[in-house]
Amino acid sequence: MRRKNNIGMLFICGMAAVTVSGCGSKNVTNCEVLSVDGSVSGSTYLCENGSSTYVYENDAIRDADTGETLTHADDLAFMACTESELLFYTTEYGGSLYAYRFKEEKTEELSQDYYVTGMKAHGDEIFVNARRKDYKNNKEETYAYALFVCEDDGTVEDLTEWVKTQEPEEENEHYAVYRYGDYLLTTDLTLAQETPQLVCVEEETSGFVYSCLPYNTYVRMDGEMVCLEKYAPEILEISSGKGGTSPELTGVSGDCFYFLSQYARGGWGYQKNPSIDFKVRDCYYRYDPADKRCELLYEAGKGEQIAGFSISGNIVYLQKKSGVYAHDLTTGKERFLAKDPESGNQYGTMFFLQEKDGLHIFSQAFGVDSPMLPVDCGK
Q: Are 208 and 202 in contact (CB under 8 A)?
């Protein structure tokens, strides 16, 4: 790596088999969940530094406080920032990585060589996970990935190559842990790839964690690295659909994983955020790795899709044709949050992003050039 959709937003404060029928929903709006409460994955349509918060809206990255446009960005997938620069990756024309320099107010293309699968910033560093553009299939777990760290001074280091020359600080049959400055870098020794697979970045003082592999979720619990696999055997079975997990849809609280599993028809296995045309059911689970027990917390009913959850609030967010609701799992009561702006259209998509300050919602009507308009939260 060398150095060199229009979206609108709403901000809202705030192992027995299970047999279910098909989705049976009359929804015409897709539900895409980009992150959930307690997620240790990377950042997508929202990032922040000490100066401001930045949001992807209407084919551009904007300052959320002032509304100022920083740079144009078609088909954004990920972004993350430090005080000096904002890195972002777009999927347009096969995928490109860019840097926007705050001081110079200029955008520079960094690379077209990689397919970026995620990024996350901490302090003066941005960690970028990527793979070569050597398409084999749509199964993320079949590829080898590389992790890069981009420093505020413009330097980039390939950490995957770096660990090849280092001795681990800790090692067992499953993991090797390396110290890189203030960070701990963990590789999963059980993954069958030609290069070391870095799976987790930690900074002990701040509590920063980045589970960087795009298909499994890694986090340290009680001093030990724990992995929730994409196809964990403890995931409950659903008839007529294949389910799994992904880091973006998995939150961590205490010694448990909380995750959304989206079940879909088709012979290609689990797919994150499947089209409503193929979706069978959404389920919200809690998984305790100590006793390997998976508990179903909520199963979406007819006409519902799960848009996220609040672990501490014991709430699941539901997208319905009539709008978005917060469903209290303790009382069973529901609170209206927002209308579905695409409910009157033939097709559309709503995007849900959970950050520390609450749930953010984006929307887009069907069509290549369809504008994405802000959603009225109705507060």
A: yes
